[in-house]
Amino acid sequence: MDTAIAEEYGNINSSVEYFLKFKIPKEARILDIGCSYGSLLYKLHEFGYTNLQGIDVNKKLIEMGKKEYPVIKDRIEYYPGDIIPFEDNSFDVVLMFDVIEHIPDIHIFLANQVYRIIKKEGKFIFQTPNKFINIPWEIIHNYSLTAYKKYHCSLQSLSSLRMILENAKFKNIILEKHNIITDHNKKKLKKNIGSLGLPLLHIIQRMPLSISSNFWGNCKK
What we know:
Blueprint: H1 3-20, E1 30-33, H2 39-46, E2 52-56, H3 59-68, E3 76-78, E4 91-97, H4 106-117, E5 118-129, H5 131-142, H6 158-167, E6 171-176, H7 183-193, H8 197-205, E7 214-220
Parallel strand pairs: 1-2, 1-4, 2-3, 4-5
Antiparallel strand pairs: 5-7, 6-7
Helix pairs in contact: 1-2
């Protein structure tokens, strides 16, 4: 397995764990926006989900994913990033893990595209970093006050995330924490800050939702 894909695979496990708690029917039509290599879809395929689709703006990642996961190669496709190439009311579930923060004008994208393709009473499941935690981390990591803005152009706070979801007309909005004390995060922090990584993870895990490292959530159309 490609090293980059292997690293992504580790983080995908948290997304799979969060997704599975909703007990989505195996035949549900599911779209993963920003699917990258397709690792999440591959894992869901292994869990028995049969009606999967993924799209990403990076052609290179899509091509790598097709080679790495041939069993789902016809289920992951490139798209230009503006208009989602599916008809209205097409999906039972739409996923966006670590994607919201990368999309310019995310409030428009959620309202005009994501909401549009979800079936009535369908579910939107997502995860995105907290701007108040992510910005300091990225500044330290990049030794730059502005570099993060090139790839994290739509970071959200707890209140702003709820607001853009409400404005997009989603209902039953739930924003919550999820376990961050994972092997993936332990390795990531150990690499960047050494032995302080594990204690820091436990501290962050106990923080109130408004200052937690990431927001996990779900809502309905």
